[in-house]
Design goal:
Distance between the termini: 49 Å
Low-confidence stretches: none
Order of helices and strands: EEHEEEEE
Strand order of the largest sheet: 1-2-6-5-4-3-7
Shape: globular
Mean pLDDT: 78
Length: about 120
């Protein structure tokens, strides 16, 4: 049973039972034009970048100065749906309209293990 809760950060779609579905393989990286804030039609850039990152962990910079992290589940209806960790074994899907997103950044690869200085 899904529940929707309005929060300051967006609409929380809460599913109390964990879903036993594995994540799809990461989408191939596509070259994208550089992001220039304030350019009209920026939603097209956000939509293109979000679609290329479905199934991958990302950091999302919001226009209000905050940020969120999670895995992009889907892009639909002018919004990006992101699965975020809550606590213990609970995850929830939040959705963010394109016009609230400043940029999306994929997590970088981990550095190889070795001595740390």
């Amino acid at each position: 049973m899904q529940r929707k809760i309005a929060t300051e950060r967006g609409i929380l779609v809460y599913n109390p039972s964990p879903l036993p579905s594995p994540l799809p393989p990461p989408a191939p990286s596509l070259p994208l034009p550089p992001y220039i804030p304030g350019i009209p039609g920026g939603g097209g850039y956000i939509q293109q970048k979000a679609n290329s990152l479905i199934g991958r962990p990302v950091g999302i910079s919001l226009k209000n100065g905050t940020g969120v992290a999670g895995v992009i589940c889907r892009v639909q209806g002018g919004e990006v749906y992101v699965m975020q960790y809550l606590y213990q074994k609970q995850f929830a899907t939040f959705h963010y309209p394109f016009n609230q997103i400043q940029d999306l950044n994929p997590y970088p690869g981990c550095q190889p293990f070795g001595p740390y200085y």
